Amino acid sequence: MYLVIGGSHQGKLVWALQEFSLKQEQVADGAVLTWQNGALELPAGAAVLDDLEALLARMQQAGLAQQEINALLAGLPEDMVVICDEVGLGLVPVEAAGRAYREIVGRVCCDLAARARGVIRIYCGMPQVLKSEKSEK
Amino acid sequence: MLALVIGGAASGKSEFAESLAMSLAAERYYVATMMSYDAEADRRVERHRSMRRGKGFATVERPLDLAGMELKSGPDAVVLLECASTLLGNELCMPQGSGSGAWQAILAGVERLVNSGINVVVVSNDVFGEGSAATPEMREYTRQLGLLNCGLADMADCVAEVVCGLVQVHKGSLVSRGRA
Predict the structure, then answer these.
(1) Are residues A89 and B130, on separate chains, in Cβ contact within 8 Å?
(2) ipTM above 0.90?
(3) Which residues span the domain enclosing A54?
(4) What is the number of domains present in chain A?
(5) Would you call A90 and B138 a contact, using CB atoms and an 8 Å cutoff?
(6) For helices B102-115 and B84-93, what crossing angle results, to 10°?
(7) Quick one: which of B121, B26, B8 has its CA closest to B77?
């Protein structure tokens, strides 16, 4: 798995499609992706999960606990490119749900980063490699 | 030696700061700054306590007036201050806090610890990426935290940012048991 993070509107998806030679048709959108019976319903041929933060927001709204979210994401294929907005870089939200949301996104990203072969942060369209298992070559 | 560990919410910065502190000295103090006022804060404090359990930290509660803290430690000790951002919030919000000079008061407190010769690891927050300061009070907090973080980074031998649990070194290098 590769994890691509960064602020919103930084060109994460454009960079990922080009870097991994993938097409828009291979992108699953976290804003609409569904899950059922403990599994994500990824479309056939999906190679990119975009807007993970939107998926996590919907899982939070559906009342899923952190462990249930972790279990769903454990089923992501090992060759998936996962794209997530960086959140948690603001003041502590006034609403409890806002505080819980950035905890969920932050912890999930820590878990995915630990599992990923590569973690890249995109800033103004430019990549910064945070983790690479290819670094020995 | 002073190390600044900075990151967003739930970025893994505490876990890293703890292991860094543990690598620096066997005599370990954890300066806790958070005052618990509800169940959510209780859970947050408990999460941090259970993370620290068995790691050999003596906890010192210090929600205000860092410069007035008296530690009877040996010269080889390490202090983990968690965190500068909470301490600043307390100094700004509480009647006995130091108000407009809060960031300088905290910086002076850290400097005093460093000058005593012990190792210091300070955790702070990056709150500068979402433009979420909606009120004058929030803007003043953000302004002072920016000044405090810059002041700490200037004083520090090492500045490390934690992103998704991954460490980016912005200044110096990560050392263990070394004295700068």
Answers:
(1) yes
(2) no
(3) 11-113+124-130
(4) 1
(5) no
(6) 140
(7) B26
